[in-house]
Give the backbone structure.
Amino acid sequence: MKFKIKAYNLQELGQRTNQEDSLYPALGKSKPEDRLFILCDGMGGHEKGEVASATVCETISRVILSTWHPNEALSDELFLQALSAAYDALDAKDNGEERKMGTTLTFLCLHANGATVAHIGDSRIYQLRPASKNSPAQIVFRTQDHSLVNDLVKIGEITEEEAKHHPQKNVITRAMQPCQEHRAKADIAHLTDIQPGDYFFMCSDGMLEQSTDDNILNIITKPNVSDEHKLEMLRQVTEENKDNHTAHLIYISDVANSVVEDVSVCTSSTESHDMLISATFSKTKKNKIKKLIIWTAIVVVMVLAIVVVSFFCIWRT
């Protein structure tokens, strides 16, 4: 797939004294040619959360962009190679303290085969589709938080509503930290149902303090409102949030298949059509010859029969 996009991002301190969230591309640096987006939330209450988030953002983006070209498909192997390099970089920056620095990860790459999304922790990725004549606005895809409350919801211990106010709602069950005996794995998804008009929204959990999925869907898919104003609306609804809050907003303005692929399909179709016509003519010709041989054989047999009968009658007389 080939994409035309518009990309925006925002980052706010909230009521914190330091910013532990990190972005790639950096704040205000997104460009229409960007196809790789990363957002990391340094773990609050841990030493050097901002170091962990920046290290992961920098390492993964560097490894991916040093090998991958936007016109190519992105393999899971390359993503996992970049993830492993990020863990190695975290290990190298470990200060030996018992309370390890850490970060969540959200990853989005638009490439030739669609989109690869991956995440660790409770920062989220949404794919949102505005309303059309045939369907209402919808959340096409959303990552599932690696968090205690989400696990409790899954097993039916608490409801979605109870999860919003649960005293342990900020406890996450997966994070990237240095020197882990078992490194946390990323959930990876491959998205191919991507249409012009869709949005991807990546955000740290700080964006979600006062917002529900429906709030986010309504703001981002609101008709007749510019993307810049939608970004400002997101900023306004989070201005009272306590935590750092950071987001990427990526608008898909157009999606097209490769011209080479289209031409090859047309050529193959034309060649198949020509071969079918040729085979039809050949089969028709063979059938005519076969019928001619059969009728000739019948005539020869009849003539021989007449000759034999005539000879037998003459011999008897």
Remarks:
- The longest helix spans residues 259-316.
- Helices lie at 49-67, 76-92, 148-154, 160-164, 213-220, 227-237, 259-316.
